[in-house]
Amino acid sequence: MRPTVTDHHFAQYSFSVREQLAKDRRFAPDKFQIDAFDSIDSGRSVLVAAPTGSGKTLVADYGIRLALATKTRAIYTAPIKALSNQKYRDWCGEYGEEQVGLLTGDITINPDAPIMVMTTEVLRNMIYAGNTTLDRLSVVVLDEVHFIQDAYRGGV
User: 5 vs 9, 32, 119, 131, CA distance in Å?
Assistant: First the structure.
């Protein structure tokens, strides 16, 4: 049986991560973001549905920073390769290339990194296969989740 981090609580790390996030972003989080942070800290799953540009990514960044602080893993998924590639480049710039990996089916870069960026299909396949990449996983971000069953793209 693979080790899991389901009993992992982030609360002991939240103050320093929130402090660093505020310093890096230079603005105070909105109430919905603080509520999401609090839920993540207590080990609950969070679904954030908000308009474009409202700050959903800050919640994802918070979870990813907590995963780094606790030496666990974070997976970010997007339904399209272009968005996965963009997030990979963004987070390499923010967290460093050694901290971020990319798996799109066509491309594999740094697959043992603590932050893994991948398409939703790749994550689905890993789950079905029982892939060890899921070991020590504490955070999963499913971005653009409304596209997952898009008839134009095909189901995931």
Answer: 9, 25, 22, 15
pTM of the model: 0.82
pLDDT of residue 115: 97
Domain that holds residue 15: 11-147
Asked whether residue 135 is domain-assigned, the answer is: yes
User: Residues 92-115: pLDDT tens digits?
Assistant: 999 999 999 999 989 999 999 999
Task: Count CB atoms within 10 A of the CB of residue 15.
Answer: 10
Provide φ and ψ at 100, rounded to 5°: -125, 135
Q: Write out the two tokens for 135.
A: 């070991």
Sign, CA dihedral 42-1-65-78, equals: negative
| Length reported for the chain | 156
